[in-house]
From TrEMBL:
Belongs to the GerABKC lipoprotein family. GO terms for biological process: spore germination. The lineage of its organism: Bacteria, Bacillati, Bacillota, Clostridia, Eubacteriales. Residues 25-200 form the Spore germination protein N-terminal domain. Residues 214-380 form the Spore germination GerAC-like C-terminal domain. Coiled coil: none annotated. Keywords: Germination, Lipoprotein, Membrane, Palmitate, Signal, Transmembrane, Transmembrane helix. It comes from Desulfosporosinus lacus DSM 15449. It holds the Pfam family Spore_GerAC_N. The chain crosses the membrane at residues 6-24. This is Spore germination protein KC.
Amino acid sequence: MQKGKRVIYLFLILGISWLITGCWDRKELEGRAIVTLIALDKGENNDIKFSVRVVRTSDSQESGTGGSSGSERASVIMSSTGDTVFDAIRNLVLKSGRKLYYPHNTAIIFGNEIAREGILPILDVFNRDAEMHPLTWVLVTPGEAADILEAQPTLESLSAKQLDMMLNDFGATSKTVATNLLDTMKQLAYDSPGVVLSNIELDPNNPRKALLLNGAAVFQRDKLIGRLDPLETRGYLWSQGKVESGVITFPCPGEENKKVSMEIKRANRKIESDISDGQLKFTITINVESRLAEQACLTDLGNPEKLMELKKSQCEVIEKEIRSIVDKAQEKYSTDILGFGTELSRKFPQEWQNIKENWAEEFPKAEVDIVVNSKIFDIGLIKQPL
């Protein structure tokens, strides 16, 4: 009996060893095209143009179609078209001889034309593919997305790495947004009235085709309807409680032709909803702490009276930024990108059931108050201007 058990144990050990040392479903990277960026555009024949920047895995010195020089010699741009995204992806094999490998992909970039038609059907294939990382960035560009793949990196070795660093550090200015595939699909899955994605362009002031994050793109459901400039984008981030840092500038008290720069250190927001006599009302309350980072005037801003003026001016600037996005969302786009409907459904679930079907008509009629509480806790090492 004991001998029989030993034989069974021996077979189990040998079986487990065989399983853990074998990779029956392995995929050799030498036979795959490692993707770092994806661009999607409308094709010339009303089909889909699929473009990728892929890492070179050979010693070839040819630049390839759309390839770039310098540090980007390690990668190449390739494009194909198809009736669907998946069709275009497989058609690319006819040019590359390799299937695509997505785990190292940094971003999915939509061209203006295809984004206006709707991004949800386009994203379907990437959500179904287990290789696509859910934290992949999703962006929009005003022109052709394929043009963004031509960008040259400035401080990093690859443009994909450069873009990743820019989006990870978006909070330094809070003038753009950083939305990944998971967040995008969450918003679309819950029938959100709108999505806001980062707007990316080629810097017109840089002849080397450098990347530039310039504000944000606004979607009604999944269709692109417009854009926000950098300050409107920060107004949106104020309303979402996503401002991390940044610089607020305004005229120096007593010297209107000189500027003061305040650095945002901490901020939070609260949205409250109310219904009175059938009128919807929302109140956005912002609490912000900042420090005096720079002054171009000779006014003694350490004076308590001047500090109060600084706080007042800072509140006015923040309120103006938030008001700009509220007005644009209500009057121009009629799209609740601010999340008012979500807040209303939490506090007044029964009333929300009665108006949610007509929310696109009710949202622009809502009254919105903005309250900003400002605190300046530091004016730096120099107490008085030199």
